[in-house]
Design goal:
- With about 160 residues, the chain is mainly beta.
- It has 1 helix and 9 strands, in the order ββββββββαβ.
- The protein has one domain: PEBP-like (Phosphatidylethanolamine-binding Protein, Alpha-Beta Complex), CATH 3.90.280.
- The strands form 2 sheets. It has a 6-stranded mixed sheet with strand order 2-9-8-4-5-7. A 3-stranded antiparallel sheet has the order 1-3-6, with no helix packed on it.
- A hairpin with a 7-residue loop joins β4 and β5.
- The longest helix has 8 residues.
- It is globular, with a radius of gyration of 15 Å.
- The model has no long low-confidence stretch (mean pLDDT about 95).
Length: about 160
């Protein structure tokens, strides 16, 4: 069975409810995953938007959430997660803070990629890494990956 990531809040390639965005309560959505491969020592989650600032002419990928060293026995994250699974470490998003930052696109409909990685190692404490530093640390250690894409356009 391949590794999959899902959310009861939205289906793949469908709209993210406003409550999970800057137009609502800006709380993280519940996420679930299954099919974590044998030999996985940790999981990582990166949530980003490759359509910033304008999907018609994207100039950057905006990072919304960076988590790593999620225990492989964890099967998801609660909505509005207040307490991460024991051992989970956080990186910084593009607001230069840890934690979830919801969609808040300035123009157009953006795509939000929830990327889950199964790693064959427990990473060292990277001291609040940016997405790029985490991706470098994961090189050569990815056993499987899965993604869930959500869409959001401000009213």
């Amino acid at each position: 069975m391949p590794m999959i990531i899902t959310s009861p809040s939205f289906a793949h390639n469908r709209a993210i409810p406003a409550r999970h965005t800057c137009d609502g309560q800006n709380v993280s959505m519940r996420l679930s995953w299954a099919g974590v491969p044998t030999g996985t020592k940790s999981l990582a989650l990166i949530v980003d938007d490759p359509d910033a600032p304008d999907p018609a002419s994207p100039k950057m990928t905006w990072v919304h959430w960076v988590l790593y060293n999620i225990p492989p026995a964890a099967n998801g994250l609660a909505e509005g997660v207040a307490e991460l699974p024991v051992g989970t470490l956080q990186g910084v998003n593009d607001w230069q803070r840890t934690g979830y930052g919801g969609p808040c696109p300035p123009i157009g409909e953006h795509r939000y990629f929830f990327k889950l990685y199964a790693l064959d190692t427990l990473l060292p404490d990277l001291k609040r890494p940016a997405k790029e530093a985490l991706e470098r640390a994961m090189l050569g250690h990815v056993l499987a990956q899965s993604e869930l894409i959500g869409l959001y356009r401000r009213k």
